[in-house]
Amino acid sequence: MFTGIVEELGEITAVENLGDASRFRLRGPVVTEGAKHGDSIAVNGVCLTVVEHEGDEFTADVMAETLNRSSLGALAVGSRVNLERPTAVGTRLGGHIVQGHVDGTGQILERKPSDNWEIVKISLPADLARYVVEKGSITVDGISLTVVDAGPDYFTISLIPTTLALTTLGIKQPGDPVNLEVDVIAKYVERLLAAKDAEHANDPANAESKESAQ
């Protein structure tokens, strides 16, 4: 589990095409400290497994499913990426619960800078719109953020100077893709309510009451 608090801005140093997968080598002095084979590291919000680790670099394999469902397929040598290690038990939860399982991708539509912050508008896939609410949490490229405005096919976020300086959202421009992970709690609530509605509909007593009413 992650919290969406980016630890450092890393860099892709090599990309190897494996046919139905890709192997990335990434530089990240902070996240590689103490890293070992099998550890998890979130890369732009995607939970990847450390295959090899040497110095301040690590390698990770990315399957075709992940490449197709996220923006990682667009990365190349020199691309900057947000990096975060899993949350340690007993530490503060600085952002919100982030699984590192990307639900879909959006696209930066517009940036409106001001003196102390910047408003960024991002497109929102139709199947994810119901999980995004004003003042709710969303993960964009692995960054835990608060939704300012939620539209039918977009949402906006407000970025402080620290976020702009230390993450990819400071350098991405309109047209660039971003990974999106909605609040997992919203998905669980939806699933539970659907199950409850189905149970209610299949309850014989409920069916009998409907027949009596007719």
Outline the structure in words:
- With 214 residues, the chain is an alpha+beta fold.
- It folds into two domains: 8-84, Elongation Factor Tu (Ef-tu), domain 3; 104-189, Elongation Factor Tu (Ef-tu), domain 3.
- The chain has helices at residues 64-69, 161-166, 184-202, 204-213, and strands spanning 8-17, 21-27, 40-43, 46-54, 57-63, 80-84, 104-113, 118-123, 137-140, 143-150, 154-159, 177-182.
- The strands form two sheets. A six-stranded antiparallel β-barrel has the order 1-2-5-4-3-6. The chain has a six-stranded antiparallel barrel with strand order 7-8-11-10-9-12.
- The protein is globular and about 65 Å long.
- The mean pLDDT is 91.
Could you provide a short overview of the structure?
With 214 residues, the protein is α+β, with helices and mostly antiparallel strands. It folds into two domains: 8-84, Elongation Factor Tu (Ef-tu), domain 3, CATH 2.40.30.20; 104-189, Elongation Factor Tu (Ef-tu), domain 3 (Beta Barrel), CATH 2.40.30. It has four helices and twelve strands, in the order βββββαββββββαβαα.
